[in-house]
């Protein structure tokens, strides 16, 4: 309806400008509040809403994605109730499985991996499985596309990294990838998130050294032993430092640069599977 009332809009959506989306939003402004967004199937969100997300309010789009990733998590958008559907078996709905990050932070991390929302499957947690790098290797051995998230003791910083490759508990080896990144997330004490992608020395992007009880992302974020002497070091592989400069080590060990992990979580990341309800 909106496009038919605006015949001058480009047929190719990839060629749309911000003004084109504003035109469509203005045309549909009376209709948008009456759409039952939270009744959409995964396929409908990806096929019908995702291409036009610019005409939706930011909070609404966040809440739509929240419902896809973690259906039991609270949202702030008040929408129309779904129509009643008889004889329907609903899928199980679990809360977002993290004690460190919020659903909003998970969506931010997802956006760094792909434009589509990602599913977070908890593999390991320090308070549940133990604080030891060897434990992480044992649980995550041969698992690819993992996110490691750390809460720093004393500062409350939330640091982490994404490894698209498999962790290997049997071999000491640096691994090559162009798709890994490290990050620190916005918290009460940090006004913005920092994303640091690997941008050179790709062959050393992933630090996989189980026999030395060490793992990380080059030396930009390194976990060691019982996770009481972790650090971020000046390194040539990742684009940005994810900790304040005073906590970045030029040599190791550096007492000020070392930090202890209060809690950690490792997630396996996978795209949300689109299923059509028939």
In words, what does this structure look like?
The strands form 3 sheets. A 6-stranded antiparallel sheet has the order 1-12-2-3-5-6. Strands 4-7-8-9 form a 4-stranded antiparallel sheet, with no helix packed on it. The chain has 2 domains: 3-69, no CATH class; 103-271, no CATH class. The two termini are 25 Å apart. The chain contains 6 helices and 12 strands. With 278 residues, the protein is an alpha+beta fold. The longest helix has 12 residues, at 58-69. 27% of the residues are buried. A hairpin with a 3-residue loop joins strand 8 (214-217) and strand 9. It has helices at residues 18-27, 42-49, 58-69, 103-113, 126-129, 133-140; strands spanning 118-125, 146-152, 158-163, 173-175, 181-184, 194-197, 206-209, 214-217, 221-224, 232-233, 248-249, 261-271. Residues 99-270 form the TLDc domain. It comes from Diversispora epigaea. This is TLDc domain-containing protein.
Number of separate domains: 2
Sheet/helix structural class: alpha+beta
Q: Determine the N-to-C terminus distance.
A: 25 Å
Over the alpha carbons, how many angstroms does the gyration radius reach?
22 Å
Task: Please name the defining characteristics of this protein.
278 residues; alpha+beta; 6-stranded antiparallel β-sheet; 19% helix; 21% strand
Task: Please outline the helices and strands.
Elements: H1 18-27, H2 42-49, H3 58-69, H4 103-113, E1 118-125, H5 126-129, H6 133-140, E2 146-152, E3 158-163, E4 173-175, E5 181-184, E6 194-197, E7 206-209, E8 214-217, E9 221-224, E10 232-233, E11 248-249, E12 261-271
Parallel strand pairs: 10-11
Antiparallel strand pairs: 1-12, 2-3, 2-12, 3-5, 4-7, 5-6, 7-8, 8-9
């Amino acid at each position: 309806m909106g496009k038919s009332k605006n015949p001058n809009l480009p047929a190719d959506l990839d060629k749309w400008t911000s003004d084109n989306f504003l035109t469509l939003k203005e045309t549909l402004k009376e209709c948008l509040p009456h759409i039952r967004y939270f009744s959409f199937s995964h396929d409908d969100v990806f096929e019908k809403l995702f291409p036009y997300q610019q005409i939706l309010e930011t909070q609404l789009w966040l809440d739509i994605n929240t419902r896809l990733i973690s259906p039991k998590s609270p949202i702030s958008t008040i929408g129309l109730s779904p129509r009643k559907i008889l004889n329907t078996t609903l899928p199980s709905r679990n809360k977002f499985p993290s004690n460190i990050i919020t659903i909003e932070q998970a969506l931010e991390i997802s956006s760094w991996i792909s434009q589509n929302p990602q599913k977070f499957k908890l593999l390991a947690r320090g308070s549940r499985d133990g604080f030891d790098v060897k434990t992480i290797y044992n649980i995550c051995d041969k698992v690819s596309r993992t996110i490691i998230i750390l809460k720093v003791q004393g500062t409350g910083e939330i640091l982490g990294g994404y490894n698209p490759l498999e962790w290997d508990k049997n071999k000491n080896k640096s691994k090559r990838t162009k798709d890994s990144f490290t990050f620190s997330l916005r918290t009460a004490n940090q006004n913005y998130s920092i994303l640091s992608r690997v941008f050179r020395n790709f062959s050393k992007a992933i630090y996989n050294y189980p026999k030395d009880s060490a793992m990380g992302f080059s030396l930009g974020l390194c976990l060691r032993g019982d996770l009481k002497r972790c650090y971020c070091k000046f390194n040539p592989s990742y684009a940005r430092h994810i900790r304040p400069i005073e906590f970045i080590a030029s040599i190791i060990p550096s007492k000020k640069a070392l930090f202890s992990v209060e809690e950690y979580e490792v997630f396996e990341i996978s795209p949300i599977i689109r299923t059509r309800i028939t």
